[in-house]
Amino acid sequence: MTQPAQPRRRFLRNASAGAIGAGALAAPMISRAQTTTLRFQSTWPAKDIFHEYANDFAKKVNDMAGGRLKIEVLPSGSVVPAFQLLDAVNKGTLDGGHGVVAYHYGKQSALALWGSGPAFGMDPNMVLAWHNYGGGKALLEEIYKSINMDVVSYLYGPMPTQPLGWFKKPVAKVADMKGLKFRTVGLAVDVFTELGTAVNPLPGGEIVPALDRGLIDAAEFNNATSDRILGFPDVAKNCMLQSFHQSGEQFEILFNKAKYDALPAELRAIIDYAVQAGSADMSWKAIQRNSQDYIELKKAGIKFYKTPDAILKAQLDAWDKVIAKKGAENPLFKKVLDSQREFAQRAGQWQNDYMVDFKMAWNRYFGAKKA
User: Would you identify the CATH topology of the domain 165-247+301-351?
Assistant: First the structure.
């Protein structure tokens, strides 16, 4: 009764072995997708922490893509000057880039609203919240379309409040700003012009040489780490902290749209999530590095001063004049401004009511009395 089962088992074993053998023979015919390499350029010098942030983002994409996508990042000037990045990405001269939206200010003034000015009291993370969930992203796409820029833009990386800048002598009042040859970018150009300075919008890598040669008297850039690396302490000894000129800025990652659209959906998803991860990672790294370099700058003899409230108020007054003028002559500018205002009123009310004043706790443990 049991004999017929033996041939059946042998048949199944043979069939299984045959399937395995066939699979083994077929395996070499399955080809892995080739690596797609995208050539990026940042708008930052190779030694700047901002270029490091660009490489951090690229590494996240490269690691998650498992060899299917590779982003290579070149420093500023490798292919085009910093302020020509958008055009180069649009034309396909570069596949993508890393910079800030304010650098495209000359093409459409509304672009500078992503970063310049007090943003109706929003901090940089809230500006990113507005961009991603409050309508800002669609408005940015509309602006790029209006100036015929065929790019895909991601904003990420909330920057800490930027100093008023580096000065040969500290400024104590608004009158001290008048007549200074000063470096800034974006709508901050208009704000500082209202304050009486003669503005020169130099890219990051050109600021310190210009200060050294006396082409400008003072300049702002961004943070303790970048300022230290780029050599500001070698040409100026006074840094004024706190300002409204760029208190809510963030980074921009650009892709040539044709190159981006040609990527498989799963690789585009990896880019999406790498942007989000990069945003958090950048903000954590900034706290670590900026706080340490702040200490090192003090050790090197740099004098830090809080920007007087009178100058901060004058900045707000100047900002109101700038946005009234720009909004009246540029419908897209007003459209972005109105969107920010609506979001800031709601989100700012929530944040200001809910968030505790952390300075109270810090002063308790580290303030003057404890020292």
Answer: D-Maltodextrin-Binding Protein; domain 2 (3.40.190)
